[in-house]
Amino acid sequence: MDTLALFGFSVAFSVTAWGVVTARYFWPKLRILPQRDALRLLLTLHAFRFVGLAFLVPGVVGPDLPAAFARPAAYGDLGAAILARS
Question: What is the pTM for the complete model shown?
Fold first, then answer.
C-alpha cells in the first residue's frame, strides 16, 4: 500500500479516536466549568507544542523535509506553546 495512503489512514484514525475521547470524557467536564477555567485546561494541551522544534534536529526527520516547511512549523509550534503558557 502507498505510504501516503497509510499516513492518511493514520491521521484519520487518530482524529476519530481523539474525537471519541473528547466527546466521552473531555466535553462533559469542560462544558460545566466556567469559560475561563475551561479555556485554561484546553490551552494546557498546547503547552506541549514545543515538540515541533524536533523538525530542526538533524536525524529526527528525513533529510528531504524542506526547510521552507520545517522552520515555520517548528517556530510556529514554539510560539503556540509560549502563548498557551501565558
Answer: 0.49
